[in-house]
């Protein structure tokens, strides 16, 4: 995998670039739609291609449980299994260790957990996480890490930093000893932990950045900490992380989060918000979030967003989409998801364009000033 920076903002740390894997070329900054279980919920790869999505995200934990990484390997890897010929990044399962904490037990050896599906017991180690991701054949694989709660005390987060370094070294050793199973390489991203404690973040960077070949992730944010604390840590990461490698801020986030983080030199993002909110009838627009189920849209015959050129906005009204949600028609989820993903992809395209034109800082200040008045943006 190769990464090159094509343009830099003169005021902030924003930059546009090109990330090349053996399966696609990805313009950055980029938002990755989340295909947790091998599918971006409610839509198919043709829609993703129409949105010019060059990379999506899958999840090790969920694909290991269903349908099983062995089945996906027999199918020729996740690309072939889901008929997706562009790039794939897979999370390691570390976040599920955090989100399903009531079902797991963590030690330096790995994580003992119960399946949220049937209660069966499993032991996930750094080596097993790498084996699963090797079977999946993802282009970018994430190191197995411990992601503590954003409000955890310093002692617990310090332990997570040490454990994440230990586990990364085991991940790297496993991959060095086991060649990829497919005709393309797999790039391992270490994950920086440390919560909201600057000294622990610096420690994590010092321990992991030297082993990063082409990409590094910022983990352990958007997990319950204050928004201002998250922004402070992202800004700190801009100072500490290698300038010539792509930076991936995991699990973030809202449109304003993306723009603020791009100001601090972040290149890659993922979040379930556009797809999950779509299924809940919450639609991102140029004037904030619309709750399409509200009664005020009952006779609204205009599109969701007059500035949007997506399939949904070109063909259907708010009133019709509200009707579909009210009768629980499945196609409502699809139409809403197409709109929300279009919003996110268009936002990233606008960000890249403004960086290249040299007007990103002026544009981003205006965008943030406008959007911070809207709840949820």
List the helices and strands and how they pair.
Layout: E1 2-8, E2 15-20, E3 25-28, E4 30-32, H1 45-50, E5 55-59, H2 60-65, H3 69-74, H4 78-81, E6 87-91, H5 94-99, E7 104-107, E8 110-114, E9 121-124, H6 126-136, E10 140-142, H7 154-177, E11 187-189, E12 191-192, H8 198-208, E13 216-218, H9 227-240, E14 247-249, H10 255-263, E15 268-270, H11 273-279, E16 282-285, E17 288-291, H12 311-315, H13 318-326, H14 331-357, H15 360-371
Parallel strand pairs: 4-15, 5-6, 6-10, 10-11, 12-13, 13-14, 14-15
Antiparallel strand pairs: 1-2, 2-3, 7-8, 8-9, 16-17
Helix pairs in contact: 6-7, 7-8, 8-9, 10-15, 11-14, 13-14, 14-15
**Please, how many helices?**
15
Task: Give the structural class.
Answer: alpha/beta
Overall number of strands = 17
Distance between the termini: 33 Å
Characterize the largest beta sheet: strand count, sense, and whether it forms a barrel. 5 strands, parallel
């Amino acid at each position: 995998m190769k990464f090159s920076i094509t343009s830099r903002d003169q005021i902030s740390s924003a930059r546009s670039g090109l990330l090349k894997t053996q399966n696609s070329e990805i313009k950055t900054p980029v938002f990755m739609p989340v295909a947790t279980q091998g599918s971006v919920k409610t839509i198919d790869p043709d829609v993703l291609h129409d949105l010019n999505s060059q990379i999506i995200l899958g999840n090790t934990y969920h694909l290991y449980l269903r349908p099983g990484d062995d089945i996906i390997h027999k199918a020729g890897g996740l690309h072939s299994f889901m008929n997706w010929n562009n790039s794939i990044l897979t999370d390691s399962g570390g976040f599920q260790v955090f989100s399903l904490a009531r079902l797991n037990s963590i030690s330096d050896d790995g994580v003992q957990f119960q399946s949220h599906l049937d209660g069966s017991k499993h032991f996930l180690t750094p080596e097993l996480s790498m084996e699963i991701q090797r079977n999946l054949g993802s282009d970018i694989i994430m190191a197995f890490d411990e992601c503590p709660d954003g409000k955890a005390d310093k002692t617990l987060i310090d332990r997570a930093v040490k454990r994440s370094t230990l586990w990364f070294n085991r991940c790297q050793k496993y991959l060095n000893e086991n060649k990829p199973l497919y005709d393309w390489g797999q790039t391992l991203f270490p994950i920086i932990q440390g919560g909201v404690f600057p000294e622990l973040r610096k420690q994590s960077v010092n321990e992991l950045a030297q082993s990063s070949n082409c990409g590094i992730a910022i983990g352990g944010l958007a997990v319950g900490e204050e928004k201002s604390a998250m922004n402070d840590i992202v800004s700190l990461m801009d100072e500490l992380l290698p300038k010539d490698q792509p930076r991936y801020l995991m699990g973030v986030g809202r449109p304003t989060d993306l723009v603020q983080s791009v100001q601090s030199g972040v290149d890659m993002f993922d979040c379930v918000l556009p797809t999950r909110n779509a299924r809940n009838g919450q639609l991102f627009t140029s004037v904030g979030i619309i709750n399409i189920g509200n009664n005020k849209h009952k006779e609204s015959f205009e599109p969701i967003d007059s500035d949007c050129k997506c399939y949904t906005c070109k063909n259907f009204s708010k009133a019709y989409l509200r009707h579909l949600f009210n009768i629980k028609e499945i196609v409502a989820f699809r139409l809403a998801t197409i709109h929300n993903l279009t919003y996110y992809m268009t936002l990233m395209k606008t960000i890249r364009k403004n960086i290249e034109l040299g007007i990103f800082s002026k544009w981003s200040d205006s965008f943030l000033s406008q959007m911070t008045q809207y709840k949820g943006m």
